[in-house]
Amino acid sequence: MDHKWYILRAVSGKEKKVKENLEAEIVRRKLVEFVPQVLIPTEKVYEMRNGKKRIRERSFFPGYILIQADLSNGQVHDLITDREMVPNVIGFLGATGANVKDEPTPLRIGEVNRILGRVDEATERDEQLDTPFIIGEAVKVMDGPFSGFTGTVEEVFEDRKKLNVTVKIFGRNTPVELNYVQVEKVD
Q: Whole-prediction pTM value?
C-alpha cells in the first residue's frame, strides 16, 4: 500500500460532518485499509465567558481535512469526490485540473510533519486565550483574591499569558499581575 497524505476541501463549518460521513462510507465499503486516517487539525482554546473558563476546539485550517489514503484503488478516489455519498466535499486541494476527478497532488512528508507537529504542540500548551488584551482596556477580575474588582490593563505579557492590571482598592490604584484566564473583558 502506498499511503500518502492529501488535503480535502470541504464547506467551512461542515468539516466534522464530512469526516463522519466519509468514515462511515469507508467502513461500509470495506476500504479501511486504503484510508487509515481522516483528520481535522484542531486546537483547544480557553476563553472566559460569564466568569467561567470554557474550552472549545477550533480548526487550524477551516474548510480543510487531512486524509491519508492510497488512491491507486479507483473506488477510494471516487468515494471521496462523490458529492452524493459525502455531501459538502468540494474536492481535493492540488488536483491538477478543474475537474474534481483529477488526480490530486499529495503533501510532502515535511508538510505533513509540520501540520501534525502543530497539532501535537497545541495539545501540550497549557492555555491559549482566543481574545488577547489591549493596554488601556477595562477588565473585570473573575478569579483570585481580587475577584469582582474592575481594572485597567497596563501591560500585556503575551509570552507568559499574563497582564498587569491596575485595580482601585480602598480608593488607591493598586497594580496586580493576573493570568489571562483570571480576567474578562468588560463590554
A: 0.60
